[in-house]
Task: structure prediction
Amino acid sequence: MKTLFDETCIGTLQLRNRLVRSATWEAMADDAGRPTPRLVRVYRDLAYGGTGLIISSATTFSGDATRVPGMLAIPDDSYIQAYHELVQTVHREGAPIVMQLVFPGRNGVFWTPSDPSRDEIHSIARGFRDAAFRAQRAGFDGVEIHAAHGYFLSQFLNDKRNTRTDEYGGIVRNRIRFLLEITSEIQARTGETFPILVKINCSDFEEDDGVWEACQSACSKLAEQGIRAIEVSGGISHMPFPPQGLPYEESVFRDYAAEIARITDVPVILVGLNRTPSVLTGLLNTAGIGYFSLSRPFLRQPDLARYWRKNPDRPAECLSCDACREQPDGNVCPFRKSLVGEK
Ligand SMILES: Cc1cc2nc3c(=O)[nH]c(=O)nc-3n(C[C@H](O)[C@H](O)[C@H](O)COP(=O)(O)O)c2cc1C
Result:
């Protein structure tokens, strides 16, 4: 029987367990988007707490005011040095770390698929490529492309939101084209062995959005391309979560993730209301889902992985109340307990 604490590999990533910190905007980068000492401590705690794999918060490379406050950025090579300490701190505590890359838009505006010209599409793909190469040189163990939650890339998959009439809109093959071009650009620059992960929506849970069809097709093609893992999420940011009508209260996208695991041979990471070790162990052994990522529970219990190793019968203490999204001084859980030895 497989357990949450099996030691496994995702490509070159060596994981001490199957618990992943899903990308979580901490709102603690400095005004230029560089990590602060406080942010480095957040990552240290997660690694010290036994997390199997850490995915950074969404990091922009567009280098303009599109950034949300305290968001990480890696717009040019001068930023590489700033990430060394963060990466080394995490590595010292035994965890690999992947940088999540996102393209929100330009000139302070959140873009939709109809905004970029064809040339701009190609320049955004090259932007992902160059940012991934910077992450690699900063010591990150891989990158994750953020194509979920209704942001720019995610909208390309949505039949209603993607209104393009060129080869990037319309039929499924066109709607997934941009994502596939981005990942192959990155592969060409960073090499075949540098792990690329993709976070993708199974559905936006809007009527006739066509996202599930596009998601399945994208995942099959990404698998053929040699993408190392797919993180299955769903819904649109700022809309009710979990989306209405799903059959489960925990691990809500489990049926979609199980289907992606069935149709591809790529490791699948399930995100969204993972809270109970026995539920996760069941999915691991019956649904082919190999990894489980969590966001809010790690804000409350950065040492949750270590805690679950000792207390496999206890659910996470996270109430999913979302108070962590509303803190004036960074996205922290108001109920978080200090770790032993923490100042
Ligand atoms: C404060 C906060 C910030 C988040 N930032 C990101 C992000 O930067 N990138 C991303 O892909 N998802 C982000 N998410 C979504 C989470 O990664 C995750 O998909 C979602 O919270 C569901 O998981 P959970 O139930 O374990 O919290 C964020 C969530 C929260 C609560």
The first strand starts at residue 8 and ends at 10. DSSP finds eleven helices and 14 strands in the chain. The radius of gyration is 19 Å.
